[in-house]
Each structure stands twice: as C-alpha cells, then as structure tokens.
Amino acid sequence: MREVFLFLLLLLSSCLGVSTAVVPPSGSEPPTPITPTLGPPPMLTKEFLIVEDVDALVLESYPMQLRLAVRGYWPSGCSGDVRVEQALEGDTLTVRIWRGMVVGAVCPAVIVPYYETIAIEGGFTQLPAEIVVNGYTVRPNP
C-alpha cells in the first residue's frame, strides 16, 4: 500500500511541475523531510489584442495629457496579465497591447471583448500626428 501511495505522490508532483525526492526510511530512523522545489518558469508567448477602434482623448491641461479609448477583442478565451508598451518616435506614437500566454496552453475558442481607456505616459506640448495601436492607425484631431 505504501509503495502505491509513493507512486501516486510522485506522479502527482510530476504533473504539477514540482520535483521531489522520495527517501524511504531505513530501520528505525525517522523519515527525512523533503522540501519540494519548483521547476523552471513556463515559457511565455505574446498574444496581441485585435484592435477594432481607437479614440484619442485629450485632457485640457498643460502639458497635454492623452488617453486612448481602445475597443477590440482577444482571439482566445485564455486569461493573462495585460501589458501595454508605448514608444514615441518623431510624430508617431506606437502602442502595443498584449498578454503573456504559456506556450502550448489549451484555450477555449471564444472571442473575448476588450474595452479600456489607457493613459499615455508623459505630457505633450503637441499631439502626435499619428497613433498606431497594434497596427490600427488613428490621426487625432487637434
């Protein structure tokens, strides 16, 4: 019975990504405590948001503050932390919205709607001529 229990424990720990060592007690020695260790972190891939519409919202302040109302959808039903990267090069503001997905994850085949207002870091003395969010281009009106 004990061997079956140890086998099931080893099988369960391998499924959870935890490595353990089984040390059977010899004679009258007390069992040696075993500290599980986590395996390497999972490899991630980027899943980009499919953007359907972007509205540039300019706040009345000096320097100008910019918000982007982004509407789109995620192409799968998996969940993950949403990340926003932005870069201003010349007159073009580029924003990338993505989430980290575990490589090989099995996700439901559903489209998940997304609507969020994103604050753009920094102040502007003039609006960028062009804003590109995941390939969707908008030219804000001054």
Gist of the model:
This protein is mostly beta strands. It has 1 helix and 10 strands; from the N terminus they run αββββββββββ. The model has no long low-confidence stretch (mean pLDDT 81).
What's the layout of helices and strands?
Blueprint lengths: L1 H14 L2 E2 L17 E2 L5 E5 L1 E10 L5 E10 L7 E8 L2 E11 L9 E8 L10 E4 L2 E3 L4
Parallel strand pairs: 7-9
Antiparallel strand pairs: 1-2, 3-7, 4-5, 5-8, 6-7, 9-10
3D structure, described in words:
10% of the residues lie in helices and 44% in strands. It has one helix at residues 2-15; strands spanning 18-19, 37-38, 44-48, 50-59, 65-74, 82-89, 92-102, 112-119, 130-133, 136-138. The chain has one helix and ten strands. The chain has 142 residues and is mainly beta. The termini are far apart. The chain is elongated and about 85 Å long.
